[in-house]
Amino acid sequence: MNTTGVTTPKPALRPANPHFSSGPCAKRPGYSLEALSGAFLGRSHRAAAPKARLNEIIQRSAALLGMPADWRLGIVPASDTGAVEMALWSLLGARPVDVLAWENFGKTWASDITQHLKLANTRAMTAPYGQLPDLSAVDPSHDVVFTWNGTASGVRVPNGDWIPDDRQGLMICDATSAAFAMDLPWNKLDVVTWSWQKVLGGEAAHGMLALSPRAVERLETYTPAWPLPKLFRLTSKGKIAEGIFKGETINTPSMLCAEDALDSLRWAESVGGLPALIGRCEGNLAAVARWVDQTDWVDFLPERVDTRSCTSICLKIVAPWFTALPEDVRAKTAKQLVGLLEREGVAFDIGSYRDAPPGIRVWTGATIETSDVEKLLPWLDWAYQQVAP
Length: 389
Fold this sequence. Notes:
Blueprint: H1 48-65, E1 72-77, H2 79-91, E2 97-101, H3 104-116, E3 122-126, E4 143-147, E5 149-150, E6 155-156, E7 171-174, E8 191-195, E9 206-211, H4 213-221, E10 235-236, E11 239-240, H5 255-270, H6 273-293, E12 298-300, E13 312-317, H7 320-323, H8 327-344, E14 359-363, H9 370-387
Parallel strand pairs: 2-3, 2-4, 4-7, 7-8
Antiparallel strand pairs: 1-9, 5-6, 8-9, 10-11, 12-13, 13-14
């Protein structure tokens, strides 16, 4: 509680959309449930028209992202997590593995590879929250697993220059909070995954799995030593299961969620496609950066400017009184700050990820208006002053 005797008035303006959650994320501007009126409810997803709708999601997504024509893209179960797990269990084991981990999700993939797949020839290359591992230490003869943008840390790789064009291993990239927000160099990658619920604000439970020709070759020439459950099987009789990449999903998808995903893609096309989506995200980051530059109690969690995420912006409280507190008290105080904003109805779900340092995490993906970000920032100042001694 602020005991300085100074009363800080509440800001006069409130964000029109207070949904700054890092997943599921805010719906597109102007969203209405009317967008779902054409959904194929009560129809088999394998019937011609519903299957065509699923294939439309694939085609529009690939076109919007500028995916090379020789790549394959499919809708898979269990959100981005399912897509990553399918890649790990189906592709790894043929070569040594380097897995990069600088926040919770990278650590999860490292744990899966070492403790569940039990691949002995694995290097877990880690870094603390706010930093990146040494990318130059990656061995191009190894398969490499990494997140393009660490949603829980707000740290992204600055580019793909560290990935050799003549690599022998596969680059397996969890891009769920980067796809549609950052420029992914497809020639540097071999597997890319994401979900509908992030940058385009779609609904949860469905993942997208993109495979390069090199990844398909691995699938058709390598058989893992472990059994694969049905949900992970990408091949049939030694060949890629082409139907998966034409809308024939492995399990039953939600046609309601599919209709919502199509609405998001059409909106993205209407605002100017990928360049416009990236511009919206970078504009949001720039607005936050201007505020941080003139605010003494807060700073970015990422230590390097070129690694700051433009979608999952993670902030740390740097005021000396706060950093001097025990860790559990810091966590409690940060929760009080974000709780004030939720009770005021100006920002929902902006606490740091549970394993990250206590602070603030604001989603600033393409569906977030910069005007709403700018209206939120004075409220952060107000909430901080309420909890400061």
